[in-house]
Amino acid sequence: MKFLESAGVGRTVATIAATVALATTAGCSSTADEPAPIAQSTAPTPVAAASSSLRLDDQPVTPAAAKLANGFRRQGFGPGVGVVLVPVGGSATIALGSQTPARVAWSTIKVPLAIAAHRNAADDDAEIGELVESAIINSDNSAALRLRKSLGSPTEARKKVTAVLRDGGDDTTEVVTITQPDETFGLTVWPLTGSAQFTAGLPCLADSAQVVRYMGQVAGVQQWGVEVMRGPKSTAVKGGWGPSDDGGEEVRQIGLITHADGQRTAVAMSSYVTGQTMGEGTATLDRVARWLNQNLALLPRGRC
User: Fold this and answer.
1) What is the pLDDT of residues 26-85, one digit of tens each?
2) DSSP-assigned beta bridge partners for residue 176
3) Integer CA distances (angstroms), 71 to 11, 77, 87, 109, in order
4) Contacts of 43 by beta carbon, 8 Å cutoff, 6+ apart
5) Cβ distance 196 to 257 under 8 Å?
C-alpha cells in the first residue's frame, strides 16, 4: 500500500532541512495571539540571496522555501517551536524552527494505530469502526487502547503500526516497545520530519479515507493549530499532548491543508518550553497556523 510520489519532489530530506535551518535561527519568544506582520521589501533578503548557492539533488532551494524560512524567523516564535511542511504525495521537506530534541508522539500516533486496526479487522466490524471514530475525533484513550489490543500481542501490534508508518512514507521512526498493559504507543519518539512525511502519504493510502474524514471532524479539544486556518478549502488534524520530563506540557499536531485547487500540504508542528501549559502550547500553534494562513501561496503542495 505504498503511496505514489509526485514527480520532481523526491528530494533529500536531510539536505533541505539543513538548508532551511540556516535561515531559521531562533528569535525572541512571544505570547501574543496574533503574529507580527512580516516586513516587506523589494530588495532581496539575505536568506533569498544565500539560497541561490545552496542546492539539493542539483536543484536550487526554491524561492518559496527561502521566503518561508525568512518569514518564520521574523515571527520570533521561540526556540521550542518547530514546523515541517511536505507536499502530499511527495517527500521534499521544509523544516522550520526547532527540530531537536525529537519528542514523543502522544495522541498523534492514534492515526497510524487506527489504520492498522482497520486493516486488521473484518470489513463489517462495526465495533472497530466506532473505536476508530472515537479515537480520532475525541482523542479517546480507552478507544485507542482497545484498538491496540485488537492487533494481537504488543509485539504484533508494534509490527502492524510500524508497517503503516512505512507505507505512509516514514522510513525511520521506531515504534516504542509496549511495557505496560495500558500503553498505546504514544511514547513513540516521532520526529516532526517523520510525522510530516507520514502525513504527506496518509491520504494516498487506499485504506485511509475514513480516518482522514474523521480528522476533518475533530472535537473541540483538538480545534487548534491548523484548525484555526480560514484560507484553505478544508483542514484535517490530529493533536497530541502530554507532560514532559522537564515539566510542563508538550503540544504537537499533524495536519492536512487542502487548497482551493484540491492539492494538499502536510504539516507537523510542535511547541514546548519548560513549564508550558497546554493552553499556552495550543495558543502558540494557533499563532503558527495564522502565519501559515498568511503564506498559503508559498506552501508546498501536491496530489497522490
Assistant:
1) 333 332 333 333 232 223 222 222 232 333 334 457 899 999 999 999 999 988 999 999
2) none
3) 22, 11, 19, 30
4) none
5) no
Amino acid at 256: L
The C-alpha cell 522510513 sits at 171
The length of the chain in residues reads 304
How far is residue 175's CA from residue 76's CA, in Å, rounded to a whole number?
Answer: 33
Model pTM score: 0.82
Q: What is the pLDDT of residue 122?
A: 79
- In sequence order, the β-bridge partners of residue 256 are 236, 266
Cα–Cα distance measured from residue 282 to residue 274, given in angstroms and rounded to the nearest whole number: 15
Can you name the residues that pair with 239 across neighbouring β-strands? 253
